[in-house]
Amino acid sequence: MKEQLLNKSAAINTPLADGCTRRIALFGSTGSIGRQALEVIAGNSSLFSVEVLTAYNNEELLIEQALRFNPNIVVIGDEKKYQKVKEALSATEIKVFAGEKALEEVASMDCYDLMLAAIVGYAGLRPVLRAIGNGKSVALANKETLVVAGDIIMRKAVENRVPVIPVDSEHSAIFQCLVGEMRNKIEKIILTASGGPFLGRKPNYLVNVKREHALQHPNWNMGAKITIDSATLMNKGLEMIEARWLFNLNPEQIQVVIHPQSIIHSMVQFEDGSIKAQMGLPDMKLPIQYALAFPRRIPNTFPRYDFKKYNTLTFEEPDLRTFRNLGLAMDALNKGGNLPAVMNAANEIAVYAFLRNRVNFLDMTDVIEKTMHKVSFIPSPTLEEYFESDGMARNYAADLIKL
Ligand code: NDP
Ligand code: MG
């Protein structure tokens, strides 16, 4: 798979050459990744054009973005908001669609070269499947897509000769370390984790933490769901599964190390023991830009890391006894089948409930664990079985919480 990624990546068929723009479909344009991607695009308007923008709820921002970037198409997920978006854009040529089906249909269109998959959660899976089926390159931020159905996604990507370029900073780091290493085997990868806002805390502290506290990430400013996932360390678990599929690794080749400064974004260790790391300040615009422009690096004026200013980098083991979500994700990674999909669905429900103050911080783990025990295990699921497992897990988890 590594070879497939690095070989075929060169096949992103619109070169970033003079006078030739890469046409971007930005799925999830109103989110944290989506907004930062638009900043990157705005700074490089001779290289990129925006062809598609999508949102779910936030019609105000979608309209503002559409008026500024003049895409070919916008999609608003919530159909009730269609009329408002349509009217606001009536003086333009922009086509407006609404609803979840429209998100898939637009992903199947030919008007773009590269999809930036920045919808959050399971909702991002179907548009990505359509993009890959349609032979479009994918810059993937939506890690849940690979957690749910990574085997199918990567198989289809190979069949359709579609590059899947990671946007997640750790996976971008690994991807960057692998450039030029096509023939060399990976011994292991080392995923770094900041540890989140509750690093060093114990369960007696965590039982009382509230939503506002958990939403304060020390290093990264992200959407609400991934911020909670970072606080519980589920995010790192999801990333282990994401890495397994992106780089075709065995579970035992994936190690997690806590690195609170978030300067080393991840590392690859090769068979000779040599370790390559990718470093920089924690700023998602860099991996976003790298994925949009791949295989080129383009200049920018983002702040630079200064070794004199921050001269201590530290590393420690994750505390699996306290942050049990990471252990559950490791189980899901090891057992495979539909278990990661079940875990992901239960986690989405648990995080949703926590953000609405319906469960406490530690209850999230119980909901996920019980759901993982309840839903029947399927060793090699079909796509349909992944969808069904997701639905069953969601229903069971929601019943547990009485949502
Ligand atoms: P946000 O919550 O900030 O944004 C999510 C985007 O998805 C918004 O545009 C939102 O629209 C849209 N959306 C939400 N629900 C649906 C739905 N049911 N159907 C269609 N669209 C929907 O998330 P982030 O930008 O933080 O994260 C996006 C993805 O990238 C996640 O998978 C995350 O794990 C991953 N990622 C994020 C990082 C970050 O720094 N933020 C870092 C690495 C990975 P609306 O605003 O209208 O509701
Ligand atoms: Mg990450």
Descriptive account of the structure:
It is a single chain. With 403 residues, the chain is an alpha/beta fold. The protein contains 17 helices and eleven strands. The protein has a seven-stranded parallel sheet with strand order 4-3-2-1-5-6-7, with helices on both faces. Helix 12 (234-246) packs parallel to helix 14 (324-335), helix 15 runs parallel beside helix 17 and helix 16 (363-374) packs across helix 17. Residues 168-170, 239 line the site of magnesium ion (MG).
- The ordered H/E elements are HEHEHEHEHEHEHEHEHHHHEEEHHHHH
Helix content: 40-55%
Give a list of the ligands: NADPH dihydro-nicotinamide-adenine-dinucleotide phosphate, magnesium ion
Largest sheet: 7 strands, parallel
N→C terminal distance: 40 Å
Radius of gyration over alpha carbons?
Answer: 20 Å
Low-confidence stretches: 1-11
Helix segment count?
Answer: 17
Q: Pairing-aware structural class of the strands and helices?
A: alpha/beta
Gross morphology is globular
Strand content: 5-15%
Spatial sequence of strands, sheet with the most strands: 4-3-2-1-5-6-7
**What's the total count of β strands?**
11
Mean pLDDT: 95
